[in-house]
Amino acid sequence: MAKVTVDGIEVEVPNGASVLQACEAAGKEIPRFCYHERLSVAGNCRMCLVEVEKAPKPVASCAFPVADGMKVFTDTPVVRNARRGVMEFLLINHPLDCPICDQGGECDLQDQAYAYGHDSSRYGEAKRAVKDKDIGPLVKTVMTRCIQCTRCVRFAAEVAGTPELGGTNRGENMEIGTYVEKALSSELSGNLIDICPVGALTSRPYAFVSRPWELKKTDSIDVLDAVGANIRVDSRGPEVLRIIPRVNEAVNEEWMADRGRFSFDGLKRRRLDRPWVHKDGKMVAATWPEAFAAIAHRLAGLPGERIGAVAGALADAESVVALKDLMAAYGSANLDCRDDGAAIDASRPDYWRFNTTIEGIEEADALLIIGSDIRREAPVLNARIRKRWAAGRFPVAYVGPRGLDLTYPATHLGDGPGAMGAFAETLKAAQKPMVIVGRGALQRPDGAAVLAAAWKLAAEVGALTPDWHGFNLLHLFGGQVGALELGFVPGQGGKDLAAMLAGGVDALWLLNADGFDPARIPASTFVVYQGHHGDAMAGRADVILPGAAYTEKDATWVNTEGRAQRGRLAIHPPGEAKEDWRIVRAFSEGVGKTLPYDDAGAIRARLAEASPVFARIGEVARGGCADLAGPAATAAPTDAAFVLPIPVYHQADVISRASDTMAKCAEVYGPQTALAAE
Amino acid sequence: MSAEHAEPASFAFDAESEAKIATILKRYPEGKQASAVIPLLYVVQKQMGLQTGSAWVPRVAMDVVADRLGMAPIRVYEVATFYFMFNTKPIGRFHLQVCGTTPCWLRGSDEVLRACKDAGHLKGYGDTSPDGLFTLTEMECMGACVNAPMIAVDDDYYEDLDYESTVKLIEALKRGERPTPGSATGRRSSEAAGGATALTGSETE
Ligand code: SF4
Ligand code: FES
Ligand code: FES
Questions:
Q1: pLDDT in tens, A87-112
Q2: How far is CA B181 from CA A230, A458, A509, B166, B191, in A?
Q3: Where is the stretch described as Disordered (chain B) (predicted)?
Q4: Are A243 and A234 in contact (CB under 8 A)?
């Protein structure tokens, strides 16, 4: 540790820390542009100048290491003058187009010019102009505004692992770009918008849409993958205008994936905004009482075992528990939340959770990935793996389609389960080995055997010890784990999805269940579809109950680690659509099976009672593995090649399939499944 | 940044270049091959000069270098565009690089430039002559100020020039000759203009 005095305040910081970090520790704000705590230090903007005792001139605090006994001054005439000078230089070539710039109101350059700069300009000469670059449908560029801090260059190379941005030419002619014009290939490209301190990189869909002070800001959770990135939904009136990440060190640090960030325009399209009932061969608009009556009528005569319910990828925990309770009231144990057919063993939580936790990845020292393209199934989690890889000594191997580009080197072992064992020696040699099984790897006839074999491998290589749990299942969407935690799986004598679809039930209640082909439902089955988008499944329904999308309700979501988090209502659901658990609750009342909760507090108490996960919002119970007994399987897996579950990253769920922005991306980027090199 | 010139469809190192690359790569420890990016770009430029008569570095060749050194292509583009010595556009057979920095300018670089334009049929800096023989570029000081003014033709320095001697040099190049580099007035390296005035004999004499 080093003792440093900043403006008379003494602080202790680790050796090797920068002067800027010491100043922060002392509570002093240091203006900066190029410095970003999650990127390497570039030291090129010079905005962070401070005075250090005995140094002959001001030093760039972000790039200057502390020394014991150092005295730093952040508010002297020299420092103030230096900042003013740097600011003046930065503004020489910066257009003063704030009134038409989308960064206006939340621009570091604007704020810092205001706080630290001159009050007027002395510059009368010509400014340089830089041609804008086309780097894809998501990030808009106005390169004349670029101050060449190179944050974007470092982000792309270091965090995203797609080194495609750079600074070409030099001096007056230096430009940031891709040199050869191309769309950035990262699934994290939206983060460039956040880290660019000026308005050079802004959101294309948000261009000229709004000013930050007009927005209502609502904290929420990204449910379009299973990472559970913490987000802020910015809305105005009835519309979501943009989504940006919030900091959560344990989950997403400060990043979020492009699908979650940019697909919200899909919230306005193809919405189910009123109930519909199938009458005389066609769907007709109905009122809520009519829709409820149609369902009640059909269910009335049925024994419990002929009724079933399926929960899908985007179902929130509240509605899942309500539907489960409703089914219990009907005497049905036919529940399943594995609507994609994944053979998940629901008998023990660590069979379905990402037990190492996302933060835990940074402790691991070897990794085997089974049947998952993590980069596209969970881009933010993949960035964490990359971060671990960048720290050194982290062998990674994968089983699945050859040619995956995970953004870090990984050895391809083979296409099917047979190749899993080939990495055993490396895993054994490691102290904290990790195995990640993609949910997609279990969506096959021998899925249960794959799961069992992966667990067995983890146990054999020492990934399961009393203080390290190296077995991980990576889910695909925000609603999948919550339903497992709530035990939305066949109860005593209950039928699973396959049995229900094989004529095992006469009535089927689908809650956001879009994961299977509607054609598999027998013609005679009465289908209730509760959801928010008129995707394929809604087309098969006999009754449609319009629900709320994740931005339109106060709801609880559980990420792949088993971490429950709350999203809040940002905008109201369209038309007559309602919060999902209230739909189920209202129905239950109509049929005289009233569920015992009717406000948010009560249903949350019910959740907490159903699973401890919901009693510790935001937390995750991390631990080792005490019991090595694995999931049940009757046979060994076949060696059929793994197929990735998400063929087109930008169109993986009902919301993104309704989004124009995502459709544009899908056009530009196309399907990204393995390139089958060779 | 998009290329306004024709890019070759592909690039491959020839045997001679490969031999050079093998020697170059040996200079860097395992895992640090990226350090060889500048020498390799230079090899590319030389080979292009020999093969096509235009010593430049096409984009496909930068990709080949990136691939060879295990670098992201953009990292190579950055280097190639940063250094003036790499031509990222096709140039003439001879690259006339005129120094216009103060010492050369005081000693008459404007005349040298005029001679280049007249004899080489060049409109100005950045131009390539219609016959494809010459490209004219303005350079900053190349460290030969003692013998100012000077120009560099590709890698060779021609010094102590004036209008006539520059024209002569260019005419010679047109004829396919390659005059001996160095001072046009005949002085040896950077001796005083009228011949050596000090250290003319040994101390014991
Ligand atoms: S585009 Fe933005 S982040 Fe990138 S160098 Fe320019 S100012 Fe910095
Ligand atoms: S923040 Fe220190 S030089 Fe840019
Ligand atoms: S000024 Fe021309 S070589 Fe130095």
A1: 999 999 999 899 999 999 999 999 99
A2: 67, 71, 89, 12, 15
A3: 174-205
A4: yes
Tokens of A494: 């209950």
CATH of the domain at A460: 3.40.228.10
Whether residues A391 and A470 share a domain: the answer is yes
Chain A nearest C-alpha distance from B73 (Å): 8
What pLDDT, on the 0 to 100 scale, is given for residue A547? 97
Regarding the beta carbon of A473 and ligand 2, being less than 6 Å apart is answered no
Residues A435, A357 share a domain:
yes
SS3 B72: coil
Are B74 and A166 an interchain contact pair (Cβ–Cβ within 8 Å)? yes
Residue showing tokens 């596209």 = A376
Of the candidates B3, B74, B80, which has an alpha carbon nearest to the alpha carbon of residue A177? Answer: B74
Average pLDDT, chain A: 95
In the reported structure, the alpha carbon of residue A130 is separated from the centroid of ligand 3 by a whole-number distance in angstroms of: 31
Q: How far apart are CA A110 and CA B73, in angstroms?
A: 34
- Are residues B81 and A170, on separate chains, in Cβ contact within 8 Å? yes
Positions in chain B short of pLDDT 50: 1-3
Q: Are the beta carbons of B1 and A175 separated by less than 8 Å? A: yes
pLDDT in tens, B72-107: 999 999 999 999 899 999 999 999 999 999 999 999
- Domain end residue (candidates: B82, B108, B131): B82
Question: In this structure, are A308 and A366 located in the same domain?
Answer: no
Q: In angstroms, what CA-CA distances link A652 with A78, A184, A314, A338, A528? A: 55, 20, 12, 16, 23
Q: How many contacts, defined by CB atoms under 8 Å, are there between A and B?
A: 39
Tell me the residues of chain B between 51 and 110 that have a Cβ less than 8 Å away from chain A. 59, 72-75, 77-78, 81-82
- Nearest Cβ partner for B77 among A131, A157, A166: A166
Same domain, B44 and B107: no
So what's the pLDDT on residue B203?
65
Q: Residue B103 maps to which CATH number? A: 3.40.30.10
- Distance CA(A259)–CA(A275), nearest Å, equals 28
Helix (H, G, I), strand (E, B) or coil at A556: strand
Per-residue model confidence as pLDDT tens digits over A41-55? 999 999 999 999 999
B107, B139, B142, best to mutate for ligand 3 pocket (most atoms within 8 Å of CB): B142
Question: What distance in Å separates the CA atoms of residue A97 and residue A80, rounded to the nearest whole number?
Answer: 25
Q: Give yes or no: residues B107 and B176 share one domain.
A: yes
Please provide the DSSP assignment of A366-380 as one string: EEEEES--HHHH-HH
Look up the domain containing B62 and give its range: 3-82
Q: Residue A32: nearest ligand to its CA?
A: 2
Q: Is B174 domain-assigned?
A: yes
> What residues make up the domain containing A79?
2-90
